[in-house]
Design a protein that fits this description.
Number of strands of chain B: 12
Radius of gyration of chain A: 22 Å
CATH class of chain A: Alpha Beta
CATH topology of the largest domain in chain B: Butyryl-CoA Dehydrogenase, subunit A, domain 3
Number of strands of chain A: 13
CATH class of the largest domain in chain B: Mainly Alpha
Structural class of chain B: alpha+beta
Oligomer: heterodimer
Order of helices and strands of chain A: EEEEEHEHEHEHEEEEHEH
Number of helices of chain A: 6
Shape of chain B: globular
CATH architecture of chain A: 3-Layer(aba) Sandwich
Largest sheet of chain B: 4 strands, mixed
Largest interface: A-B, 16 and 19 residues
Bound molecules: flavin-adenine dinucleotide
Strand content of chain B: 15-25%
CATH architecture of the largest domain in chain B: Up-down Bundle
Distance between the termini of chain B: 25 Å
Chain lengths: 251, 384
């Protein structure tokens, strides 16, 4: 069995700086694995442990993602190897274009049985790539999955709906996106980290025609609201009503 | 962290950071609680074992990974930011446990257990007559047949109350000797000594007719003979540097919290961080932290390259000891009254730094060793 895990590499949001005009400075933000995708990697690793599958990470992005440290980080999370397209024309791809390049990679990785995706990317969180990838590959797709059981030629997935749990049997090959609760992302240990440096990484040449369906005009942080610093005495008469009135006035 | 860490070392540091924030931070106050500290330390020891950091500088044959001292320092630095005592605990587990290999039978039995996180190690040297005042220690052991019998008292042992295996340093015929005693050995009595910081498990230990087989003892006259410590430290650069890094992480942990506080706390409608006097104060502390970091990791790197420089090693501990209290004073007071409230988890850094300035020897003891290293007349090695 072969499991592909589609994941995104993005700038560490802790180190994104907001300038006075609201523009974002990414220059200090190092590339990291998108947090929700780490849960998908862990689930893949656990499924693989149970059935002896191979787990291959697949990703696409600008040349910045071809960073040896972030590659090792991804490989220390239970992947056996990594296949990527790192090309500056793939910077900031929209969901449609991302799914198109991942389709190219998946087609090269012939014989895959299951593609796992995270719940959404930690930056855009559009939750679109999984379904579009499935459509492009002609595979069934299930999202919001909280547990996966392997069976002969199919998987049984549970999805947490608002007031019930839905159980779905899906034939393989299939594309499944998982919620963070499916498997706690591992904290990579020494062995994982030291082994990661020895795992194979393959860089593919971009062969997909990229036509953006979304044009990014600008990305800006919202204005910081200044504090009103209005302090009301708790002991005053009708203090609660005064607080409520102050909130109403401020809105 | 050092700017010279390799990619692997940096990834290990990041993993430990994640573990420290998610797993140590929410439970950190348990270490000061007599009822809870053992479970907390055992849980963390298990996690450190799973992450593979306990044997980070130990040989592979006993479950270690023979990585570098710098990697260990980076691990401890991250742990100390959240819990300085756990970083000190790591010093013992990572840098002192390998001493068990001086007795192959003991090393093969206990090192893998400690490095996997299953067991806890402690080392007890400090004597009522003074930790390094070896000439005034009483003769703590006698030989009877092929056994040694210990009768002595030891003080201030970190995690002595919960240790599964204990390395005991005693005087035997005028020289230093090491003996290993397992948990629950008859004649070993433990009593906790309440401290003003760091941990609930600060232990005094009395040994009454404790029998130890000869194969569980080792001669340490290479380190201390005729009541005088020979040049160098008992664990080489690793022991002193792993002690020093605890105060580096401690200062950084408190510094980060203080910066966050200054961003959110307002004075006359403006965040504290926008005041130039506070910016200058924080910047000055940053200078001190970076100076300590540079000396510490430089000393580690020289040691890794096979050029250990003991002068620099002692400098690192003196800087760590001397910077901790004044830096914590400045940072804790920036919290105002909140800094003095136990629940905020801020004042503990100030208390803990005092313990770290004494553990693994005081400034005066390291200055004496530094003077000896520099060849000053009459100067003696006085730090372990
Ligand atoms: C938090 C903490 C954890 C500890 N953990 C352990 C542990 O796990 N195992 C263990 O064995 N011990 C441990 N200790 C004990 C510690 O190592 C000793 O307290 C320390 O080395 C000082 O020794 P002492 O207490 O005997 O002080 P003393 O030797 O009595 O020193 C008293 C004073 O004399 C000065 N002094 C002593 N000798 C010299 C000298 N030669 N030159 C100049 N000045 C000198 C000292 O600086 C000090 O100011 C711990 C202590 C603390 C605070």
């Amino acid at each position: 069995m072969k499991i592909l895990v589609a994941f995104k590499i993005l700038p560490d949001d802790q180190d994104i700086r907001v300038a006075a005009d609201g523009s974002l400075d990414f220059s200090k933000a190092k590339p990291i694995v998108s947090s929700y995708d780490a849960n998908a990697m862990e689930e893949a690793a656990q499924l693989a442990k149970a059935c002896g599958a191979e787990v291959v990470g697949i990703t696409v992005g600008s040349s910045a993602i071809d960073d040896s440290k972030v590659k090792k980080n991804a490989l220390s999370r239970g992947l056996d190897r990594l296949v990527m397209v790192a090309d500056d024309t793939c910077d900031n791809l929209d969901s449609h274009a991302t799914a198109a390049v991942l389709t190219q990679i998946a087609e090269k990785e012939a014989g895959w049985d299951l593609i796992l995706c995270g719940d959404g990317s930690a930056d855009n969180y559009a939750q679109q790539v999984d379904v579009q990838l499935a459509a492009a590959l002609g595979a069934p797709s299930v999202n919001g999955v909280t547990s996966i059981k392997l069976q002969d030629g199919c998987i049984v997935c549970e999805r947490a709906l608002e007031s019930s749990i839905e159980t779905v049997e899906v034939s393989l090959p299939a594309v499944v996106s998982v919620t963070p609760s499916i498997a706690e992302a591992r904290v990579p240990g020494m062995k994982d980290i030291l082994a990661a440096g020895k795992k194979p990484v393959e860089a593919l040449v971009l062969e997909t025609d990229l036509s953006a369906s979304v044009e990014v005009v600008s990305v800006k942080a919202p204005d910081q609201a200044s504090r009103a610093c209005e302090v009301l005495e708790a002991g005053e008469d009708r203090a609660i009503e005064k607080v409520a009135a102050a909130i109403r006035a401020a809105l | 962290m050092s700017y010279f860490l390799t990619e692997e070392q940096e990834l290990i540091r990041e993993s430990v950071r994640e573990m420290a924030v998610n797993e140590i931070r929410p439970r950190v106050m348990e270490i000061y609680d007599v009822e809870k500290h053992e479970q907390f330390i055992r849980d963390m020891q298990k996690r450190f074992g799973e992450l593979g950091v306990l044997g980070i500088i130990a040989p592979e044959v006993v479950g270690g990974s023979e990585m570098s001292l710098s990697a260990l320092l980076a691990v401890q630095e991250e742990v100390a930011k959240e819990c300085p005592e756990l970083a000190l605990h790591l010093m013992l587990q990572c840098a002192y446990t390998p001493a068990l290999m001086l007795m192959p039978e003991v090393g093969m039995k206990w090192c893998p257990k400690v490095f996997s996180g299953e067991a806890i190690f402690a080392g007890t040297m400090t004597d009522p007559a003074g930790a390094m005042n070896h000439g005034e220690w009483s003769e703590g052991v006698v030989k009877v047949g092929d056994e040694f019998i210990i009768n002595t008292t030891k003080n201030f042992c970190t995690a002595g109350d919960i240790a599964d295996v204990l390395f005991v340093y005693v005087q035997y015929q005028g020289s230093m000797m090491g003996l290993v005693v397992e948990k629950d050995t008859p004649g070993v009595e433990l009593s906790l000594d309440p401290t003003c910081g760091l941990t609930a498990g600060f232990t005094n230990i009395s040994f009454t007719d404790v029998h130890v087989p000869e194969s569980w003892t080792c001669d340490m006259s290479w380190w201390s003979k005729d009541g005088v410590p020979v040049m160098g430290t008992v664990g080489g650069p690793a022991s002193t540097l792993t002690a020093s890094v605890c105060n580096l992480g401690l200062m950084e942990g408190l510094f980060d919290r203080t910066v966050e506080h200054c961003k959110s706390r307002t004075i006359q409608g403006k965040p504290m961080i926008e005041r130039s006097d506070i910016q200058a104060k924080l910047a000055r502390i940053k200078v001190k932290i970076e100076a300590l970091r540079a000396v510490l990791y430089d000393a580690a790197r020289l040691s890794e390259e096979g050029k250990p420089n003991m002068e620099l090693v002692h400098c690192a501990k003196v800087m760590a000891n001397d910077l901790g209290a004044p830096v914590c004073y400045e940072l804790v007071t920036l919290f105002g009254g909140l800094g003095f409230a136990v629940e905020t988890g801020v004042e503990r850094y100030y208390r803990d730094t005092l313990g770290l300035a004494i553990a693994d020897c005081t400034t005066d003891m390291h200055l004496s060793s530094l003077a000896a290293q520099m060849g000053f007349p009459g100067a003696v090695n006085a730090a372990f």
